Amino acid sequence: MKGVSMTNINMVTVAGGGVLGSQIAYQSAFKGKKVTVYDINDEAVAAAEERVRNLRDLYKRDINATDEQFDAGLNNLSYSSDLAEAVKDADLVIEAIPEKPSIKHDFYRSLAKAAPEKTIFASNSSTYVPSTFAEDTGRPDKFLNMHFANQIWRMNTAEIMGTKQTDPKVFDLIVDYAKEIGMVPIVLKKEQPGYVLNTLLIPLLNAAAYLWGHDIADPQTVDKTWMIGTGAPMGPFAIFDVVGLRTALNITKEQQGDNPDYKPFMEKIQKMMDEGRNGKDSGQGFYTYPDPAFDRPDFLKA
Amino acid sequence: MKGVSMTNINMVTVAGGGVLGSQIAYQSAFKGKKVTVYDINDEAVAAAEERVRNLRDLYKRDINATDEQFDAGLNNLSYSSDLAEAVKDADLVIEAIPEKPSIKHDFYRSLAKAAPEKTIFASNSSTYVPSTFAEDTGRPDKFLNMHFANQIWRMNTAEIMGTKQTDPKVFDLIVDYAKEIGMVPIVLKKEQPGYVLNTLLIPLLNAAAYLWGHDIADPQTVDKTWMIGTGAPMGPFAIFDVVGLRTALNITKEQQGDNPDYKPFMEKIQKMMDEGRNGKDSGQGFYTYPDPAFDRPDFLKA
Hints:
Two copies of one chain form a homodimer. Chain A has 302 residues and is an alpha/beta fold. Chain A has two domains: 11-188, Rossmann fold, CATH 3.40.50.720; 199-300, N-(1-d-carboxylethyl)-l-norvaline Dehydrogenase, domain 2, CATH 1.10.1040. In chain A, 45% of the residues lie in helices and 13% in strands. Chain A has twelve helices and eight strands. In chain A, strands 3-2-1-4-5-6-7-8 form an eight-stranded mixed sheet. In chain A, helix 1 (19-30) links the parallel strand 1 (11-15) and strand 2 (34-38). The first copy, chain A, is globular. The N and C termini of chain A lie far apart (63 Å). At the A-B interface, strand 8, helix 8 and helix 9 of A face strand 8, helix 8 and helix 9 of B.
């Protein structure tokens, strides 16, 4: 098959060294891939390097990595703000740049010219299905989405979604790559906005938003019901705290607009944010952190 | 307050000795309440007695009850097919009769005449909000829903939902009663079809049904994604197996009718049922029981 390497993917460029880009790059390097982080200028590159360095304590804490293991990962990483240089030997470019269509269209058009013919492109976009950008890539058969979760080293799913034009052999190579870097590949057989996880999660969160928004049940009551009823370690409002209230508000606004079913929820969330309760990262949301009530043994008892 | 006992509820009649009625009755008796099981004739009463006797092994296995403790519960139980006799001293009648509106309307009209003025009525209905039957009771201020889950001794929630006419003191007495019989009371402040748990669960199950129905993702992929992404012990398709495929099909039919989004799901479920795969109780559903794949340690690893 023309231009597609059937051997493993070893040389990888991650475009965009933000929160998720830096994690994707480091996790790949940690698992032995040769990784270049590309970002738009030296300042952005320096910020990416800083983000990667800050992963050390998390890898040590969460997956018991040793300093030696972490350093071996660092040795597989290089950085560049020159796109042509960054992708010149790449088997795979993983795109993790901002979620703005115009930025992504421009990026893929530049990348199409800069990258060798063999290079597979994968977008980490959480919002856009791959057909949105397939034509920009100049290689729709070698383009698909590969979507990671935050804290990739422990939330280790890679949701993989192609277009009708994606070559099945390319798809399979990406599934293999996901496994090689310690991910559980989540295979989607068709394009689906939200992939699998958000397709499931958002209706649950919306239902919870409705119950609280309309004063039918308290957040803690909702979470308790979910935890007892399904055995889950946290309920929807604890998940809102993890997601962050601003993100929850933005997603609800975008998806629900002026839908009166969700207006009370959005107003209540805004009020919490006005009080500085922005979710887990702010120490206050529906629960107080650390040691939130839902983690205490008595939470499910009364 | 006229006619409402402000002391604890001790004398309880459970109307309907089916699967859930027998569990509600026995759990109440196990926790020291004096309970009468009412059913429509001697045959139905005998079947209820048999169901209660069969709970022994489950209480021993799941909550380490001793034979002595189980027997003490049995001693608090009596049975009757005479409604007037069964409710004559009742502080509370819990109705767990078939989910047919005409049957329930008739029952509440008869009960209204047979029960003392003081008696509180609570419906275990999973489908109908309490205002549906409030007028039939002749005492809308002493009527509300109290909804239990199957396997009440371990899935110990009681979802409590009044109407605008329900006396808050009656509501509080029922919350206390729920606690006294070992339940976690789930308080709803307004009527909501599906209470809290099904309001949350059904959108999640529908989303999963959509993903599989439209061949976007396999059941095991969906479940794996949910388990890794939320830490839950089972995913939506494992829940379908517990619910039973016939029930899942009936609920989807009732709620979605001819909605093309859910038609492929319903056809696929029907095909599974035609093959004898009816869910966990049949040993085969989306998984094979016992020892389903999702319970194995490698399920989340690849």
